[in-house]
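User: What would this chain look like folded?
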Amino acid sequence: MGKPDFGPGDLVVCVDDGPGRAGPALGVPSFLRKGLIYRVSKMNAPGVPLDGMRPASWHVVLLDTASAFPNLGYRAERFRKIDKADEQFTAQIRACKPVKQREPA
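Assistant: Here's the prediction, encoded as structure tokens.
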């Protein structure tokens, strides 16, 4: 995988909360939850030694999120960037009226 399209400060959504490649073998828990939104604190490039390992792919350190390897973080492919909505879309959403609840029969 190439360099991710997100970086420090961006919001990302978790698309893979599995135990990871080394997780089951090392007994490492996954602190991620699929569908939750996280903010990227920093990115780690492939081949840079961290936490005694030399990762082969981009890794993401998340703001205020636990990790078994806090300096290394999680593989970047576990996340997708959330793009900021444009002003027109935001205005349309705010203009929507709530749906009325039906009375029980």
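Residues 11-95 form one domain. If you want, I can go into more detail on any region.
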